[in-house]
């Protein structure tokens, strides 16, 4: 009896190990099958992000809660699979993108209680861009230098939608001139670009402080985007001697200490 129980336990552990190994290959491998799987995951992620962006417009639809819980089920499946695919789950759980995804899952599971925080779901776009497989096609085609500008654009878009959701949630219908989601987006873009048409203003001290934060952070993100696009292309390769991180793509020696470098081609 004991032997049979031990055999079943060994079989269960072996099956669990095979599942984890399979998921690790699919999420982190470079085989054609793994690439197809990663592309499918990316398509699902983009569909989820599109739902998050459209949430303010869909909230009144009778099918909204069904879609909301369906997205929650997809997110649970993705988090579980990514957790099983990692080799160090406690360390993985402490990563900031994972914590954000867990928070987003909470807003999906409890939409009535956390309705005012739903605008933060767009952070899923930011967490998606932190995954390495998203940038593999660029590196393979020698276009790895585009990662920084694309990431800067995404950071700006995430900020725009977060602020738009915040303004819509806390100021719509409160004598601020914001009657819908498009009005909130219009105010956000006008503030971030410091255009300041003045036809929509947030009332009270809280509104003024919100506008100030939006303008300061928005300008910073625009400057970051301009730097990423126009400054000379550098590659990230820590110098073994002095630790300098960024070098010219064709650098042979470190500019700081002169140490011989061996920077791999981006296409490798």
TrEMBL record:
Compartments, as annotated in UniProt: Membrane
SUPFAM superfamilies xref list: Voltage-gated potassium channels
A Pfam family annotated for this UniProt entry: Ion_trans_2
Ranges for domain Potassium channel: 158-229
Keywords: Ion channel, Ion transport, Membrane, Transmembrane, Transmembrane helix, Transport
Membrane-related topology note: Multi-pass membrane protein
Coiled-coil spans in chain: none
Protein's UniProt name: Ion transporter
Biological source species: Devosia nitrariae
């Amino acid at each position: 009896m004991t032997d049979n129980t031990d055999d079943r336990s060994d079989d269960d552990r072996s099956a669990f190990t095979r599942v984890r190994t399979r998921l690790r290959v699919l999420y982190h491998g470079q085989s054609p099958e793994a690439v197809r799987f990663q592309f499918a995951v990316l398509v699902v992620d983009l569909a989820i992000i599109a739902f998050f962006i459209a949430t303010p417009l869909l909230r009144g639809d009778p099918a909204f809660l069904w879609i909301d819980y369906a997205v929650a089920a997809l997110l649970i499946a993705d988090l579980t699979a990514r957790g099983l695919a990692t080799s160090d789950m406690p360390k993985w759980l402490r990563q900031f993108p994972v914590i954000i995804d867990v928070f987003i899952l909470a807003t999906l599971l409890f939409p009535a209680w956390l309705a005012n925080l739903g605008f933060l779901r767009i952070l899923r776009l930011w967490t998606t861009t932190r995954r390495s497989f998203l940038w593999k096609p660029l590196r393979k085609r020698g276009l790895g230098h585009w990662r920084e500008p694309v990431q800067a654009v995404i950071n700006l878009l995430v900020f725009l939608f977060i602020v738009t959701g915040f303004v819509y949630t806390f100021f719509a219908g409160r004598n601020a001139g914001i009657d819908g989601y498009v009005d909130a987006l219009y105010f956000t873009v006008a503030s971030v670009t410091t255009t300041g048409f003045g036809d929509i203003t947030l009332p009270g001290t809280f509104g003024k402080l919100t506008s100030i934060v939006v303008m300061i952070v928005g300008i910073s993100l625009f400057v970051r985007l301009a730097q990423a696009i126009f400054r000379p292309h550098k590659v990230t390769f820590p110098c073994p001697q002095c630790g300098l991180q960024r070098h010219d793509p064709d650098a042979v020696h470190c500019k700081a200490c002169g140490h011989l470098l061996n920077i791999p081609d981006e296409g490798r």
